[in-house]
Each structure stands twice: as C-alpha cells, then as structure tokens.
Amino acid sequence: MKSTITMWKYTRMVVLTAISAALYATGIAVLRLPPPISLVPLSQLFPVPLSLMFGPAGAWGIAFGATIGSLITGEFSINQLFGFIGNFLLGALPFLLWTRLRPLADGNRAVRLASPRYWALYAVVVIGTAFATAVVISWPMHMLGIVPFSFLVNLIGVQDALIGMLTIMFLSLVYKRVESLGLVYWEVMDEVDLDRPQGIAGVMGA
C-alpha cells in the first residue's frame, strides 16, 4: 500500500482526495431513503468507482468523507474511529485487488469491462471489499459488546456488496471520461510511487 503514502506529494492527488471526500460526505448526508428503509446506505454507490479511478486518493477521500458525513448528520461517535479504518479499506481494496486477483486479473490498472472475465473480476472485487470492510468495522463493535459480530458483519457486507454491484453502471459512464482527462491515479503518479501489480498475498505489503 505504498501509494497511499507517496500520493501526498502530488498536488492533483490531494485535490482528488478532497473531491472524493466531498462526494462521499455529500452522499452520506443527502442520499438517504425514507423510513423504513432509511438505513440502506446509498452513499455506497461511490467507494468502488472512486477507488478504481483515483486509487489512493479515493481511499483517503472515502475515509475522510465518512467522518465528515457523520459530523454533518450528527451521527459521529467513538464508533467512527473504527469506521475510519474500515472506510479507508473500503476505498483502498478495490484498486489494489483489481490488479491482483489472478487468474481473473491481468495486472492492468485500467478498468475494462468488455468481457465476462472482467465482469467477474468486478464482482469478486466488490464482494471481497464489502465483507473485508465489514469484518474490520464489526469486530471492534462486537468486542465492546455493542453489536453481535455475525449480525453486523452480514448486515454491512450484504448491503455494501449489493449496492456495490450497481456501481458498475456508474463506472461505465464516467471512467473513460476521467481517463481521457488524465485523472486516473496511475497516470497522475509516477510508476516508482505506485504499488506493483502482483499476487493477492502482496496486497497489504506492496
């Protein structure tokens, strides 16, 4: 995850972090369904596309945006400390896994959805990210005796996975435009500052 540190020396990556945070915070504050389904987090439409487009800037943006969003809605609490880590992973895992989930992944950072293979890769990335994030958020809550682990991990994981799958439509609409503007993270940053595409075992250590 080297790129999550080295990105801070790039002005455009800092700007993309701010944009990602603003979008996610706005989504948390505005994209709310009426009761009784108001707990469905439509803001989860943003993390996967932001991650695949902006990489580490998307990761930090999601983490900061979730904190800002909870302050706007008056829902900030000690739980948000665990949520910051979980939301950072929510924004980091998609771009890291996209190049590493072999044999589906081919090491190419660019998102191409032109074949069933890449649709399958997208699905695995979304589902894997959703449940990995759910575990990180749910375990501390369980240890503190706030919410049972199995209930919360399944609630967060299933919700995020289902909504995350819908993001493939949003991404297909905006990705090529962002790429043509040279704003995808791997065009903004120098290769030496990027994480090397490799097997799944190297996700955390790259």
Key features of this structure:
206 residues, globular, 8 helices, disordered C terminus
Give a structural overview.
With 206 residues, the chain is mainly alpha-helical. Helices cover 65% and strands 0% of the residues. It is built from eight helices and no strands. The radius of gyration is 16 Å and the shape is globular.
Terminal CA distance:
5 Å
**Could you spell the SSE succession in H and E letters?**
HHHHHHHH
Poorly predicted tracts of residues: 35-39, 201-206
Q: Kindly state the number of beta strands.
A: 0
Oligomer: single chain
Quick summary:
This protein is an all-alpha fold. It has helices at residues 3-6, 11-30, 47-54, 56-73, 79-98, 116-143, 149-180, 185-188.
